[in-house]
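FW: tagging you since you asked about this chain on Friday. Here's the raw sequence from the shared folder, copied in full. Didn't touch anything.
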Amino acid sequence: MADIRMEAEIIFEPHVPRALYRALEYAGQDGFVASLPQLLHARANAAYDNIIWNTWFTSYSEESVVKTPQGNRIVVVVHGGGIFASPERFERVYRASVDRASPEGFTGQYAGKITEQEARDVQRGVLPDGTEIPVYPFEEFKGGIADLPIRYGVILDFEMARASLRGYETFEALQDEPNMIARAGGVEANLAYLGKFRDRHDTALMGNWHPYNRIDPDQPQTRIIFLAGNQGGIYSQGDDPEEWGYDCEYGIGGDACIHNMARYIAVAPRDVSRSLRNLDFEL
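HL: got it, structure written out here
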């Protein structure tokens, strides 16, 4: 008799599009690639010696800086696959001309350039693969949304996002920080993660980073979000002289270069009765 359970797999590749391809292949039609809220939720409910706490991950979440039809600058956070939901769309960025005037490719700060059409569509919840998702204004989202889907968006005013805390901040400050709430999946999810992170080493600070004070906000652009981590969670409040890098626990990075390695988590239903994973081989 089949014993179907959801099983997670770490997918690591030195090339982001290839990693995403493999993650989506593992997830299939009935699974998913973990977004940042899902990664944080898993951490909040896992033991500290679990691998999810002891290395870094690439989330299936992204943040786009775009303009509204009225000319207002906004940040659109999408969880569960947005403009860069497909490996093919990522490859267009990687393969584009490096000329700064190119309409595709990377910005000077290594975000991915997006088209004006994509910028208009994402704020309406319309994605390049034809999917339509709900998009919530931040104040509504902060108030709480019942039965959030896996894939959705949150809109923040650019100036509010730019003025948000950037760096190692107190947990009290991060509890009400707009970028952190949008990234975590809501107020309650944010509180749960912050409490778990703080209690690991009784730390006073956590890193939460954004690029909005050093980019050209008139250039439509998208970044994916990385979740830092290292063995044992050492240097988690910025007391490491080398506070950036794959082996550093710098918190949540929303200003990292996306021309990079990737480590996704893909989750899919599997018949565990056919798996070697849980068999007893001891005599």
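FW: Residues 44 and 193 are 5 Å apart (CA to CA).
HL: agreed, and The chain has a mean pLDDT of 93.
FW: great, closing this out.
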